[in-house]
Amino acid sequence: MNNKVNYTLVGILVLVGITLILSFTYWMLKPSADKETQKYRIYFNESVLGLNLDAPVKYRGITVGKVTNLRINPKNTEQVEVTVTILKTTPIKENTVAKLTAQGITGLTYINLTQGANDAPPLKAKDGEECPVIKSVPSFFEHFERSLGSVSSKLSSTLERTNILLSEKNQQEITKTLERTANVMRKIDRLLNEKTIMHFQNTVANIDSFTYKLDRVMPNVDLFIDKSIIWEGNIADSLGTISQSYLSIQASMNEFKRAVSSGEFNLKAISNDFVPTMNNSFLEMQGVMVELQELLQHYQRSPADILYKEEAIQKAPGEK
Q1: What is d(CA 96, CA 176) in angstroms, rounded to the nearest whole number?
Q2: Which tens digits make up the pLDDT trace of 124-157?
Q3: Reduced to 3 states, what is the DSSP secondary structure of residue 114?
Q4: Is the full-model pTM beyond 0.90?
Q5: 3-state secondary structure of 40
């Protein structure tokens, strides 16, 4: 038997197999007549590291196209121009946006299209554009890098301000402030010793006692005012009685004077009218004066009766 292997034949068969596999793959991926493609352009303002030719373009997780060209934008060197071909059946709207997305931990990147509003008009090429342009948004890593840069700049600014705040001069001022605060606290501690606190408590207790006594005195003050009104009425009545008696005496004297002047002086007749009147008037005046004198003597003996209580009546021996 011939055990020799024809390596040339084996190599030819391997090449033919690889060719057939590549041809089948191209045939599978190549759009057919009923699935034509549309060319779009996307401009990214960030690095497209990991994005290669033939990288997939996905719409809601479905591969709808691929990257066909990568280059620096000739009109703006800060942008990367990416040309993609996408199936025409893909609903690319005017508010559809493209974002670079990493494929796991492989380091490769694909373009992810975010769905636009369903009622938005389809994206079309504007005047002067070779093909429609899909808007781009920063990727997650771009957001993270920008946030990290912002945090880093803020942290640097904070550290710089902290360094200025903790300068030697400011440290001396802070030390002085702390010493003064400690002195104030020691003085407050000496001020609020046990004796001072006790005095403060006594003061509060005295204020409370004064308030209690004032509450008790207020009804007596109201009673004093009421009694004063009554005394005023009694004195007014007494003075009115004295005034009436004076007027009666004056009238009698006028009548006596008239009778003497006119010659009608009849001592007996006049005596019958004048003497009783005078007698009654003097008796009324005497009674009023006695009452007024008793009232004054009562409050001279016990002035406290005005606010607190009436004078206790002194009972005779044996009285109950």
Answers
A1: 63
A2: 888 888 899 999 888 877 666 666 666 667 777 7
A3: strand
A4: no
A5: strand
